[in-house]
TrEMBL record:
Transmembrane segments: none annotated. Gene3D superfamilies: Spore Coat Polysaccharide Biosynthesis Protein SpsA, Chain A. GO terms for molecular function: transferase activity. Residues 173-219 form the Galactosyltransferase C-terminal domain. Pfam families: Glyco_transf_7C (PF02709), Glycos_transf_2 (PF00535). This is Glycosyl transferase family 2. It comes from the Bacteria. Residues 5-132 form the Glycosyltransferase 2-like domain. InterPro entries: Galactosyl_T_C, Glyco_trans_2-like, Glycosyltransf_2, Nucleotide-diphossugar_trans. Keywords: Transferase.
Amino acid sequence: MREISVVIPVYNQAYPLSLTLYGFTRQPPPFDRCRIIVVDDGSSEPIEAVVEAYRDRLNIAYVRLPRKGRAAARNEGVRRLGEGIVVFCDADRIPRPGFLQAHYEAHSGAETRMAVGHVRELYVSEPERNRELVLERIRAETHGRVPQFCRLVYGLFDADGDTAAAAAWVSTLSGNLSVPLELFRRLEGFDEHFHEWGFEHMEFGYRAHRQGCRFRYATGAVNVHLAHPRSGTPYEALIRQSHAYFYKKHPQPVIRQFLGFMLGHTSLRQLEQTALACEGSGRAASVPDGFVRITNF
């Protein structure tokens, strides 16, 4: 059996992290003993205490960094790993039973690929005051909708979880993603110039796509986003800032058009057509003709 490990970057999400770690205790053997590395990206909340509370129930390690951003935190977690497969799970994404097994099985073939998991959202008013209600819904596995952006990009994949889409890299959502460690290192990980919320995961996926990596949708790898309000810089400003660096690094027509897609001005079908033109290919893929305006993912 190939080794499968988990990296969880976290910044000031102690309560969601406690629920996410609880989800990992519910994985069936042998996946309940997979190595988990929690990388604390300079939090002021007691992240280490949360990790310690699970020390006897999980094969878990804690690493603390000065504030560097999500890309650096994920890369640091991978540095602590050997060979096999790494699963990236955000601190506010509670895995359902079977989450790790589904990611593991997505890499069972000889082909090197990234596996994109399935995200759902759980809405509970004031979840920290309603912990028992949150736990009840987690155990019942009755959760709300699939986020709009996720629902759209899942349409790139067929019923078997495969895709031939030239823009499949837009599905690279690192809150629920698995990658062979050999591929991750060959790509030199996430670009740490992405400091704030942004597109470090999609830029990573774009580089993988350009090297011929295939993508797979692991429908059974479900984690549940504990929905929360966002404060600070508006999303559109972060999108524009992150995209500016993405496009500077990869000045291709499809990356230029990617900004319009993320702002809801360009459909996924239009983005796919531009991606195909960039590749000089006449092949066609079945792509949903949806628009999406991003508020969270």
